[in-house]
Structures are given as structure tokens and as C-alpha cells.
Design goal:
By secondary structure, the chain is α+β, with helices and mostly antiparallel strands. The chain has three helices and eight strands. The strands form two sheets. The chain has a five-stranded antiparallel β-sheet. A hairpin with a 4-residue loop joins strand 6 and strand 7. The relative contact order is 0.18.
Length: about 180
């Protein structure tokens, strides 16, 4: 069976809400209010965000979303993991998750996914001081676009097409 090829596109400056085009000059006004807009230099990339982009976070932040309670974990197991067939899409319900831990791995989303194809997911997270359980959602956020991954089992990490962070529960109490 052929491996599925995943791409992790980087958002472009012309698509950003803070990008301004005044005549032939390009400006970024995504800085705090007291700071003036910054003009792009000729040496800056035309489409990719430059290293000085105010939204860019370096190193990217890694967040792990765990289950709210055991009932949520069981429901998620029944819907997504129990009868998973390779190639099927998984779409976990955000309301069953809450932010469990946050840290840095020092990897972009593409580097993270490629590394997880070669080595163990648990090893990478234990080196960073984080524990991981099956069914949890991992977010790699570089400040421009967050990428989400579903931890299916010890050797399977699947990119998620949609996961709305704003719908994740913020309360830690059980129902």
C-alpha cells in the first residue's frame, strides 16, 4: 500500500490581513499599536513571510489536547479508533477535548510529521517532558497557521483536516 503524501502549506503574506500594498510598496501593519508599519525590503521574500514577521512564533508551540472525561474518551474510541481503516478521515469532536499541556518541540509541522514517520511518537514527547495517550490531538502552531495531528496508536499519527481550537473546552471539571 502506498503511503499518503501530506503537504503543509505555509500561509502567504498577500493573503494576510495585515499586508498592505501602497502603490508599488508593500507594508506589514501587524505590529503593536505604538509601532509604525514596516516596509518590505527588496531582499524579503515575495510570498512567504519574512523572518521579522510579527505573527511568526519561533520555535513553534506544541499543544496537546486531552479528553475532558472517561465518557468522552470512550465515545471518541467508538467513533474513530475502534474500526479505523487506513485512508479513512478522522474528525474528532472538539467539545470532548481540553488543553492538557503546552511546550516546545523545536520542530515545524512538516519536520514533526516527517520525524514521526521515522521514530516513535512517545519517545519524542517523553524527551520534551510530555506524556501522550491514544486519541489525543496535537497542535503545532507557528503563529501563522496551526496544524493538528491525531494520535491514533503507537506508530500512527494522522494530520487532521479540521479542528476548531475555539470549541475546545476550557473547564477542567468532569460532568
Amino acid at each position: 500500500m502506498a503511503k499518503t503524501k501530506y503537504t503543509f502549506p505555509v500561509p502567504t503574506c498577500p493573503g494576510c490581513q495585515y499586508h498592505q500594498l501602497v502603490g508599488c510598496a508593500r507594508y506589514c501593519n501587524g505590529f503593536p499599536k505604538k509601532r509604525k508599519s514596516k516596509r518590505f525590503r527588496k531582499s524579503d521574500p515575495k510570498y512567504k513571510p519574512p523572518k521579522w514577521c510579527p505573527r511568526l512564533t519561533s520555535p513553534p508551540v506544541c499543544r496537546v489536547y486531552g479528553f475532558v472525561d472517561e465518557k468522552s474518551e470512550f465515545l471518541e474510541w467508538r467513533l474513530n479508533r475502534k474500526d479505523y481503516k487506513p485512508g479513512a478521515h478522522i474528525s474528532p469532536s472538539e467539545s470532548r477535548y481540553r488543553l492538557r499541556c503546552e511546550g516546545t518541540l523545536g520542530l515545524t509541522a512538516k519536520q514533526f510529521y516527517d520525524a514521526m514517520q521515522r521514530e516513535s511518537v512517545e519517545q519524542t514527547f517523553s524527551d520534551a517532558g510530555m506524556e501522550l495517550e491514544y486519541g489525543e490531538v496535537i497542535e503545532i502552531d507557528d503563529g501563522l497557521k496551526p496544524y493538528y495531528f491525531y494520535y491514533l496508536n503507537y506508530d500512527r499519527l494522522l494530520p487532521l483536516y479540521s479542528f476548531d481550537r475555539s470549541r475546545v473546552r476550557t473547564d477542567a471539571k468532569e460532568d
